[in-house]
């Protein structure tokens, strides 16, 4: 039976990406499937959460698939955006925001786009 695995992010520097994403999401870098071109990040229960794959291709400026990181309040969103910036995330130029966005677009140290979504302002909450 076919099953959905976990997201994989292409990165140029595996150690830097593993440090960023493990700190960002409170994950652990696992020895499972570790190799020169791969890192697996797991949750506290050991479940695989995120894969990091060595890639030489540049990140897409407007990726068709990206990670959404979820928070419950605007205050939590502000705090997490600041914390992620402290870990090395940046705010790319983004002209695709709606009038009252429920998300903030960030990029990881490799330039991969992801969003921090405030569920209290998400369209589905109203």
Q: Could you characterize what this model shows?
A:
By secondary structure, the chain is of the alpha/beta class. The protein folds into two domains: 8-54, no CATH class; 67-125, 2,3-Dihydroxybiphenyl 1,2-Dioxygenase, domain 1 (Roll). Helix content is 21%, strand content 32%. The protein is built from two helices and seven strands; from the N terminus they run βαββββαββ. It has helices at 14-25, 74-87, and strands spanning 8-11, 28-35, 38-42, 48-54, 67-71, 103-107, 113-118. It has a four-stranded mixed sheet. Strands 5-7-6 form a three-stranded mixed sheet, covered by helices on one side.
Topology summary:
Blueprint: E1 8-11, H1 14-25, E2 28-35, E3 38-42, E4 48-54, E5 67-71, H2 74-87, E6 103-107, E7 113-118
Parallel strand pairs: 1-4, 5-7
Antiparallel strand pairs: 2-3, 3-4, 6-7
Put the structure in a nutshell.
This protein is α/β, with parallel strands linked by helices.
For the report, how would you describe the main beta sheet?
4 strands, mixed
Q: Radius of gyration in whole Å, from Cα?
A: 15 Å
Strand order of the largest sheet: 1-4-3-2
Q: What gap, in angstroms, lies between the N and C termini?
A: 37 Å
Count of helical segments? 2
- Spans of at least 5 consecutive residues whose pLDDT stays below 50 are none
Pattern of helices and strands: EHEEEEHEE
Q: What's the pLDDT, averaged over the residues?
A: 93
Question: How many DSSP-defined strands?
Answer: 7
- Overall tally of structural domains: 2
């Amino acid at each position: 039976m076919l099953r959905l695995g976990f997201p994989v992010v292409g990165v140029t520097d595996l150690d830097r990406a593993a440090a960023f994403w493990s700190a960002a999401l409170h994950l652990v870098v696992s020895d499972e499937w570790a190799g020169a071109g791969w890192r697996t990040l797991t949750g506290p229960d050991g479940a695989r959460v995120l894969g990091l794959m060595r890639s030489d291709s540049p990140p897409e400026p407007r990726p068709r698939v990206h990670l959404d990181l979820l928070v419950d309040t605007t205050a939590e969103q502000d705090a997490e955006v600041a914390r992620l910036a402290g870990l090395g995330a940046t705010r790319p130029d983004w002209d695709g925001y709606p009038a009252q966005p429920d998300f903030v677009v960030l990029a990881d140290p490799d330039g991969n786009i992801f969003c921090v979504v405030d569920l209290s302002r998400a369209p589905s909450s109203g």
